[in-house]
Write a structure and sequence with these properties.
Shape: globular
Oligomer: single chain
Number of helices: 5
Order of helices and strands: HEEEHEHHEEEEH
Helix content: 25-40%
Structural class: alpha+beta
């Protein structure tokens, strides 16, 4: 990203996405189905342009990161005549919430029982979400995290460091408080939430924390980043 040619390429890719989305919406208009179509736009991961001293994607750093620039991605939903243009909901949601939300919004049934997703369909209709738990969970290879509006706890398996950030006073996630005894209670509570979430929803076969393996067959649960096995 420090190379001007790389920056120009990245800017061109963003323009390409803008143009492509525009063509899709124009085609929906031409076919007369725009008002009958729910359009959802979201990304897969964030990208650093110098944030936290990193350049590039979170899955290209070592150690892997769970900073907000990796966890935070666009989520835009449009249903012309139904969703309010320009409205931004305050609640924190995750990609695992998207499927149950769209299923409910479109009246297509309920989510699978094993899914951790919650429905924010009410927000798409302009309604306030009641009893919404503003905590989201993140997992990428050997990194897991739980983020609340005030705190973030990041945990790694077979690698270090673990991290704790007070986001209200440290939005840039520069001061790791993981070993600060003053916040030991917060750290313990967030770890408890993180462990409970993945104990309920993670498949033990693929859970590195439970001795599992990656689905690609390239990462083992014993020596992440050091022992490489051939893919199958």
């Amino acid at each position: 990203m420090r190379d001007p040619a790389v920056r120009r390429k990245y800017a061109a890719e963003i323009s390409g996405i803008d143009d492509g989305v525009g063509r899709i919406l124009a085609t929906l208009d031409e076919e007369g189905v725009r008002d009958k179509t729910v359009v959802a736009f979201l990304g897969d991961q964030g990208l650093a342009g110098g944030h936290s001293g990193f350049w590039g994607m979170g899955d290209h750093t070592r150690p892997l990161t769970a900073f907000d620039w990796t966890m935070s991605i666009p989520l835009i939903v449009s249903h012309r005549g139904k969703t309010a243009a320009g409205h931004r909901a305050a609640e924190m949601v995750s990609t695992y919430d998207v499927m149950p939300s769209l299923l409910e919004y479109m009246g297509l049934g309920q989510k699978p029982a094993a899914s951790p997703g919650r429905s924010f369909a009410g927000a798409l209709r302009g309604e306030a979400l009641r009893d919404w738990d503003d905590a989201v969970y993140f997992e990428f290879e050997n990194v897991r995290a739980v983020r609340t509006p005030e705190w973030k706890y990041i945990e790694r398996i077979h690698e270090s460091p673990n991290e704790l950030y007070h986001l209200k006073t440290d939005a840039g996630e520069r001061m790791n408080l993981i070993n600060d005894a003053r916040h030991s209670g917060v750290r313990a509570e967030l770890k408890k939430k993180l462990d409970a979430f993945f104990a309920r929803y993670a498949d033990p076969k693929w859970d590195l924390w439970k001795g599992g393996h990656s689905k690609s067959g390239l990462i083992t649960g014993k020596l992440f980043g050091l022992e490489i096995v051939e893919g199958r």
